[in-house]
Design a protein that fits this description.
Blueprint (H helix, E strand, L loop, with lengths): L4 H28 L2 H31 L2 E2 L3 E2 L12 H24 L6 H24 L9 H4 L8 H19 L20 H20 L8 H27 L5 H16 L7 H24 L8 H19 L11 H33 L6 H6 L1 H6 L4 H15 L13 H29 L3 E5 L5 E4 L1 H7 L3 H4 L8 E2 L9 H7 L10 E6 L5 E13 L2 E10 L1 H59 L9 H7 L1
Antiparallel strand pairs: 1-2, 3-4, 3-8, 5-6, 6-7, 7-8
Helix pairs in contact: 1-2, 1-3, 1-7, 2-3, 2-4, 3-4, 3-6, 4-6, 4-12, 6-11, 6-12, 7-8, 7-9, 8-9, 8-10, 9-10, 9-11, 10-11, 11-12
Length: 639
C-alpha cells in the first residue's frame, strides 16, 4: 500500500465512493420491489451496512488480513484499534470494511419481500463474520504482511473482488433463495414466471448510476495507491459497464422485442462485476468484450433461474455470481500473461482461476445453506403468508404508506359492503387521485345498486340466487310474499323446497333441474313448473334462469313468477272464446233457417200465381169474368 499523502487520500476517497454504493443498492433494490415492501428493503440495506462494519471491525478484518495460520485464516488484529495502527492500516481497514458491506448487502435484493428482518440481520452477521473474511483471506490474505492465503499463494488473481466480494454475496443469496422459496404468486401453476413490477423504476435506474459511479472507487481504489494505472482501470471499468448495458439492450430487443429496464440495468451491473477481477490486466477492447460477456452470462443465468423457479427479486445471483465467475475466468482468458508467474501457461492460469471459482462456490453456498436450514428451525426465517400479502413495511416496521392505507380502506369496503363509506383522499398525490376516482365509482355504484334494489324490492316476482348444488343464497321480498317464508328462512332452504314438477322428480343440482325442464343454456324462455308455498299448496309457476359468477363463485339467478292469476285470465279468455264461437254457430244456423224459409215462401207464392193464372184462363174460355188480376208480370219482376 502506498505511503504518501496522495495515496492515503486516494484510498479514503475510494472508500467514500464504495460507501456511496450502499445508497445505490438501496435505491436499486427498493425501486425493484413493490411499494408495500420498499421501506423494509431500504431499512435492510441501511442496517446490514452498520452490522457488517461493526462485525468486520470485531472479527472479520482480523480473519481476513491478520497474520495467517497456514493460509487458512488470520489470527491477529481482532477489534481493530485505529489508535495503535498506522494511517495506512486505518485507511486500508476503512476501504475493506466498505467492501464487506457490499458483499453483505447483495443478499438483501435476492430475498426481498419475504425474508424476516431478524433472519436477515443474522445472515448479515454470519456473512460479515465468517464467509466473506475466510474466502477473502484465501484470496487476498498477506496484503498487510505475513503469509499469503492459500489461493493467492498458488497464483489466484481477483484484483478488486469479482469473486471475493460479488460471487460470495451471490452464492449466499442463492442459498437464501432456495431455503426461502419464491414469493407468493411469482410462479403460476404451469411453472411460468409472473412479472411482479417494482414500485419505482426511476429509483432503480438512479441506484444503477450511483453504483456505476461508486465502482470508480471500487476498482480504482483497489490499487491502494495513486498512480498512472488508476485512470486506465477506471476507463476499463466504464467501458465494460457501457458494453454490458448495450449488449443487454440489444439482447432485450432480440428476445423480448422491447427494451426491458431490468435487462438494461443488470447488463450494466454485470459488465461492472465482470471487469472487477481483471481491469488491471486487460486492454480497452478486451474490457468491451468482457463487459458484453458479463451481460450475456447474466441473461442466461436469469433465464435458468426462472426455469428452476428460483425467485431472485433483483437478479443478485445472475449479476454478481454468474458475471463474477465470468470475470474471474477472464483474467486468464484475456489478461496480460505478465500478471502471473512466467512459468505458468494461460491454460494453467485458467485452471487456477477455475479452482478459485469452485472454492468460492463451496465456501459461499454450503455454509450459508446449512446455517439457514439450522436457523429456520429456531426462528421464523420467512414471514407468514398473511404478512407477506400485507407487505413487510407494515408487518415488520409498523410503517404505513398511502398505498397501504388505500388498500386497507378498499378491503374494509369489500368486507362490509357499505357503499356509503368513502376512502380518504390525500390531495395533490397520485394515490389521492386514485382514491378520488374510486370514490366516484362508489357514487355510481351506490346509485345503480339503489335503483336495482328498488326494482327487486317492488317486483312481485321471486328473485333467488342459488349455489349450483341448490342452496338458496339470497332472496328478495317478492320471494317472501310468494312462498310465505321470511327471507332469513328462505336463505337456509334448498330450491327444491320451493319448486316441484308434475312427477315430483328429485334433483341434485340446479343444472339437472334446468336440464329436466328443457333448458340447457340457462337463458330461458318461460319454463312451466309448480311452486310450493309454506302451507304446502301448489301454484303454477314460470321460471327464468341465468348462470353467472359472484365473487369467484358459480351461481344461478332464478326468477319465479306466480301464474295463478295469469291462469285465471287465460281460462276466462278461453271460456269467452268458446262462448263467442258457440253464438257464431247459432247465428249461422238461424241465417240458414231463414234463407230456407224464404225459399219455401217464394215457391208457394209462385205456385199460387200460376193457379190464379190457370183459373183466369179457364174463365176466359168459358166467357166469364176474370176473378183475379194478372199478376204474372209482377211476379216476373219480383223474381
Amino acid at each position: 500500500m502506498g505511503e504518501t499523502s496522495i495515496d492515503l487520500l486516494w484510498v479514503v476517497v475510494s472508500a467514500a465512493l464504495v460507501f456511496l454504493m450502499q445508497a445505490g443498492f438501496l435505491c436499486l433494490e427498493s425501486g425493484w420491489t413493490r411499494t408495500k415492501n420498499s421501506i423494509n428493503v431500504a431499512v435492510k440495506n441501511l442496517t446490514d451496512f452498520g452490522i457488517s462494519v461493526v462485525v468486520y471491525w470485531a472479527f472479520g478484518f482480523a480473519l481476513m488480513f491478520g497474520l495467517s495460520r497456514s493460509g487458512v485464516f488470520g489470527t491477529t488484529g481482532f477489534f481493530f484499534e485505529s489508535g495503535e495502527a498506522s494511517p495506512q492500516s486505518a485507511a486500508f481497514f476503512l476501504f475493506q470494511a466498505m467492501f464487506c458491506g457490499t458483499a453483505v448487502t447483495i443478499v438483501s435484493g435476492a430475498v426481498a419481500e419475504r425474508m424476516s428482518f431478524k433472519g436477515y440481520l443474522l445472515i448479515s452477521v454470519f456473512v460479515s463474520a465468517l464467509v466473506y473474511p475466510i474466502f477473502g483471506h484465501w484470496a487476498w490474505g498477506g496484503v498487510m504482511g505475513g503469509e499469503q492465503g492459500w489461493l493467492g499463494g498458488i497464483g489466484f488473481i481477483d484484483f478488486a473482488g469479482s469473486s471475493v466480494v460479488h460471487s460470495v454475496g451471490g452464492w449466499v443469496a442463492l442459498a437464501a433463495v432456495i431455503v426461502l422459496g419464491p414469493r407468493i404468486g411469482r410462479y403460476g401453476e404451469d411453472g411460468k414466471p409472473r412479472a411482479i413490477p417494482g414500485q419505482s423504476l426511476p429509483t432503480a435506474l438512479l441506484g444503477t448510476l450511483i453504483l456505476a459511479f461508486g465502482w470508480i472507487g471500487f476498482n480504482g481504489g483497489s490499487t491502494l495507491a495513486w498512480g498512472g494505472e488508476v485512470p486506465l482501470i477506471v476507463a476499463h471499468t466504464i467501458l465494460a459497464a457501457t458494453s454490458g448495458m448495450v449488449t443487454a439492450l440489444l439482447a432485450s430487443l432480440a428476445l423480448l422485442k422491447y427494451p426491458d429496464a431490468k435487462y438494461i440495468t443488470n447488463g450494466l451491473l454485470a459488465g461492472l462485476v465482470a471487469i472487477t477481477a481483471n481491469c488491471h490486466v486487460v486492454s480497452s477492447l478486451e474490457s468491451l468484450v468482457i463487459g458484453a460477456g458479463g451481460a450475456l452470462v447474466m441473461i442466461v443465468a436469469d433465464r435458468v433461474f426462472d426455469r428452476l423457479r428460483l425467485d431472485d427479486v433483483v437478479g443478485s445471483f445472475s449479476v454478481h455470481t454468474a458475471a463474477g465467475i465470468w470475470g474471474t475466468l477472464a483474467v486468464a482468458l484475456f489478461g496480460d500473461a505478465s500478471a502471473w508467474a512466467s512459468d505458468v501457461s494461460r491454460m494453467e492460469q485458467l485452471g487456477v482461476q477455475a479452482l478459485g471459482v469452485a472454492t468460492c462456490a463451496l465456501v459461499g453456498f454450503v455454509p450459508a445453506f446449512l446455517f439457514l436450514l439450522g436457523l429456520k428451525r429456531v426462528i421464523r426465517l420467512r414471514v407468514s403468508p398473511e404478512h407477506e400479502v400485507m407487505g413487510l413495511n407494515a408487518s415488520e416496521h409498523k410503517v404505513s404508506t398511502e398505498h397501504l392505507d388505500l388498500l386497507r380502506e378498499m378491503e374494509l369496503q369489500s368486507q362490509k359492503f357499505d357503499l356509503s363509506r368513502r376512502v380518504n383522499v390525500e390531495p395533490f398525490t397520485e394515490i389521492g387521485q386514485i382514491a378520488s376516482k374510486y370514490n366516484e365509482v362508489l357514487d355510481s355504484l351506490e346509485q345503480t345498486v339503489a335503483r336495482n334494489e328498488l326494482i327487486i324490492r317492488d317486483t312481485k316476482d321471486a328473485i333467488l340466487t342459488c349455489a349450483p348444488e341448490g342452496r338458496i343464497l339470497s332472496a328478495n321480498p317478492g320471494a317472501e310474499q310468494m312462498f310465505g317464508y321470511p327471507v332469513a328462512e328462505l336463505e337456509a332452504k334448498w330450491i327444491w323446497n320451493l319448486l316441484a314438477t308434475d312427477s315430483d322428480m328429485a334433483f341434485d343440482s340446479v343444472e339437472t333441474l334446468l336440464e329436466h325442464v328443457g333448458t340447457k343454456n340457462y337463458k330461458v324462455g318461460a319454463i312451466r313448473l309448480s311452486g310450493v308455498r309454506r302451507s304446502g299448496a301448489r301454484f303454477p309457476a314460470e321460471l327464468e334462469a341465468a348462470a353467472g359468477r359472484i365473487g369467484g363463485r358459480d351461481v344461478f339467478t332464478l326468477k319465479i313468477r306466480d301464474r295463478t292469476q295469469a291462469e285465471v285470465y287465460q281460462e276466462t279468455l278461453r271460456s269467452t272464446k268458446r262462448e263467442a264461437e258457440r253464438a257464431r254457430d247459432e247465428l249461422q244456423e238461424k241465417v240458414r233457417q231463414i234463407e230456407s224459409f224464404n225459399g219455401i215462401a217464394i215457391d208457394r207464392e209462385m205456385r199460387m200465381v200460376e193457379l190464379k193464372s190457370e183459373i183466369n184462363r179457364l174463365c176466359r174460355e168459358l166467357g166469364r169474368e176474370l176473378p183475379y188480376a194478372d199478376e204474372s208480370s209482377a211476379l216476373n219482376a219480383k223474381s
